[in-house]
Design goal:
- With about 120 residues, this protein is an alpha+beta fold.
- The chain has one domain.
- It contains four helices and three strands.
- Strands 2-1-3 form a three-stranded antiparallel β-sheet, with no helix packed on it.
- The longest helix has 14 residues.
- The relative contact order is 0.26.
Amino acid sequence: MVRDTNSVEVGPLFVADPQFAKEILPFPRNTGMGWGVEADWYRIKLNRYRIGVVDACRLLHLGAFAAYPIGPESERMAERLAAANVESIWQLRSCNRRWWRWQQNPPWKNSADSAGQPPSATYQ
């Protein structure tokens, strides 16, 4: 299943279209572990790009899991959300549409309103 969403996490792995990558890379120095980068990406994507999640992709994590203080990450995330005029991270954790494996084409193909979906009030 593929979901057209308003947010993706910065890691451990993400793929970006070259045009979108030019706008988000390199990451700002104060990115830390990436908390809140979703708000930056949401602001950049509005009416121009689509963000999505592929839910059926297997990944083997070979490295150690990170341990870090969450206080500074929470502060950075709050700053990013405020700069993007987003009240809560849950505003971005929404799904606009789904593309199931049995469907020949994604539902957003040839759709006039497909790129700039605002955050939904329904969180999934």
